[in-house]
Design goal:
Layout: E1 4-8, H1 14-20, H2 23-33, E2 38-42, E3 56-59, H3 71-85, E4 90-93, H4 95-103, E5 107-110, E6 116-124, H5 126-129, E7 140-147, E8 149-153, E9 159-163, E10 171-175, E11 178-181, H6 189-205, H7 210-215, H8 221-224, H9 226-239
Helix pairs in contact: 3-4
Organism: Halomonas tibetensis
Pfam families: GATase
Keywords: Glutamine amidotransferase
């Protein structure tokens, strides 16, 4: 069994936590369905763990903003650079996506078009179709999204694996075993509906049809498999290490 660590970078809305579990719990539930388990490290309140003894890292979403450069978030950056230098497998999600891009030389900040929320189609690039992890997804697939910030500039050495009409950098690869995605593979339709419920005023202010967004929420089976497929890849590599 691979030694997987979930780096917790924030908390979900209290009602979501009560009904469905916090970010790290959603990750653990998805991994459990694939026969995997993972420990949790809260980056906001705990000292950085040693990278030795870890086979793979997940980085969760957060209501924090990468551009605010909070001390705990900034402290993660050199740690992630070290992890990348060791070629440790990493999968960042939402905040984790933006944090990895920022740590590796890109720019993450508020998207000029505003928030993207709901179930939206994402399309693989040519590089994405050939990618060891993302290439297992269909060319076009629905994904759950909830973010105000984005990777506005990918690191110069990153490979863009997926995009959509809102965000050119929906998925990036930074090395042979380091990926990040803007979408939430851990979100179920129920969690996505709960999130949209909180975001209706902001989305209306952007001129979006919130009722259509709510009605458009669907299951995202292929995107949801990304968490266990990453764990499977880590497990295969750990067996041959």
């Amino acid at each position: 069994m691979p030694r997987l660590l979930i780096v917790k970078t924030g908390d979900a809305f209290p009602d979501v936590v009560n009904a469905h579990g916090d970010f790290e719990t959603l990750f653990q539930q998805a991994l459990a369905r694939g026969g995997f388990n993972a420990s949790v490290f809260d980056a906001r309140h705990e000292p950085l763990p040693a990278l030795e003894g870890i086979d793979g890292l997940y980085i969760t979403g957060s209501h924090a903003m990468v551009s605010d450069a909070e001390p705990w978030s900034e402290a993660l950056k050199p740690w992630l650079v070290d992890a990348r230098g060791r070629n440790l497998p990493i999968l960042g999600v939402c905040y984790g996506h933006q944090l990895m891009a920022s740590a590796f030389g890109g720019v993450s900040d508020y998207h000029p078009a505003g928030r993207e929320s709901g179930t939206h189609e994402v399309t693989l690039t040519e590089a994405g179709r050939a990618d060891a992890l993302l290439g297992q997804l269909p060319l076009r697939f629905p994904a759950q999204l909830s973010h105000a910030q984005s990777v506005l500039e990918a690191p110069h050495d990153a490979v863009v694996l997926a995009s959509n009409a809102h965000d050119a950098n929906q998925a990036l690869r930074y090395g042979p075993r380091q990926w990040s995605v803007q979408f939430h593979p851990e979100f179920t339709p129920e969690v996505m509906r709960a999130y949209l419920g909180h975001q209706v005023p902001a989305l209306r202010d952007q001129g979006q049809d919130t009722q259509a967004l709510i009605e458009g929420i669907t299951a995202t089976h292929e995107a949801s498999l990304l968490l266990t497929r990453f764990a499977e890849a880590v497990a295969r590599e750990a067996e041959h290490a």
